[in-house]
Amino acid sequence: MKNIYNMTIEELEEYFLSIEEKKFKAIQTYSWLYEKRIKSFDEMSDMKKTVIEKLKNTFSLDRLKLIKVERDTLVNKYLFELYDGSLVESVLMRHDYGTSICVSSQVGCNMGCKFCESGRLKKVRNLNTYEMVLQIFAVEEDIKERITHVVIMGIGEPFDNYLNVTNFIKVINHPKGLSIGSRHITVSTCGIVPKILEFADFPYQVNLAISLHAPNDEIRNKIMPINKVYKIKDIMDALKKYYKKTNRRITFEYILLDGINDSDENALELCAILKGLNCYVNLIPYNETNNIQYKRSKNDRILKFYDIIKKNNVGVTIRREFGSNISAACGQLRSKKEEL
Ligand code: SAH
């Protein structure tokens, strides 16, 4: 049985047409699901009994099983168990501008970035659209507030799960869905070039972030195996095309790893490759984990790196740190049961 939160509005319209009902029932259904948050199809009081029966026989309304919540001052971390026993995590962050959630897109990840905890478990499977939508549902219901911003930066590589991720964006952006503004949604990728090009034609104004983390192929090859497939130049060429089509500013994420990618020269190299692109750099102080040997750059190094970029007129920020007390920070999420 299909989970109804998997359905985009177009798919639901097609469904209603297929059972010889009017397609506006799709919008009606969305209101019941996303505004009224029904627990049973019987609650749909403006729907004929026969239609309710058909919905019941076709779709489930099952939610995710929330098995653990850890709470810190501005951050909560949620652990979910999926239908097949797989585990994923989501992180809620409170900002002065609203509440954001970091959503996972896969169980495990195949990208193998050397500094990242999440990828120590190889990809088990892609998350379905509903499994991403329902992460937001569960968090909203826990905090009794609406989520205003979504970043697809949890476990997994979203562009390795392109269709489900773009359908997820359609569902959460729809005014009768979760109604999260497209400019409040960010997809982060390690740089899967064909998907960046495809994403340029995806007609939603969502933000794109690229996990670059190195200013040249030599360093990037060492820390991100995906760079052996798509080189920095390939990514930059794809981004130029992306920008031409979308006119949307691109974010580059750059983790600062002590002695690996954080020298003055590296900062200058980074500015050189970003030249002429409408973008900004988000410097990420590395979150150390027990299992990985990389170290966070020293604070004065982080500031010097920042200054060099700034002086070269490239927009730059240092990412505010969240959640490391409860291992909810970037790269610390994991899907492994034995570590619970
Ligand atoms: N696969 C996607 C999204 C998940 S990772 C991507 O690569 O963008 C989200 C971000 O956290 C990425 O920029 C990733 O490189 C970064 N990250 C991973 N491990 C980290 C760590 N230990 N400390 C800080 N950032 C980390």
Q: How is this structure best described in words?
A:
With 340 residues, this protein is of the alpha/beta class. Helices cover 33% and strands 20% of the residues. The protein has 10 helices and 14 strands. Strands 3-4-5-6-9-10-11-12-13-14 form a 10-stranded mixed sheet, covered by helices on one side. The chain has a two-stranded parallel ribbon with strand order 1-2. A hairpin with a 2-residue loop joins β5 (87-95) and β6. The longest helix is centred in the middle third of the chain and has 15 residues, at 129-143. It is globular, with a radius of gyration of 21 Å. The model has no long low-confidence stretch (mean pLDDT 94). The protein binds S-adenosyl-L-homocysteine. S-adenosyl-L-homocysteine binds at residues 111, 113, 115-116, 153, 157, 188-190, 211, 253, 255, 284, 286-287, 289, 330-331. S-adenosyl-L-homocysteine (SAH) binds next to β10 and β12.
Oligomeric organization of the protein chains: single chain
* Overall spatial form: globular
Number of helices: 10
Beta-strand level of the residues, as a percent range?
15-25%
Biggest sheet character: 10 strands, mixed
Biggest sheet strand line-up: 3-4-5-6-9-10-11-12-13-14
Radius of gyration: 21 Å
- The helicity comes to 25-40%
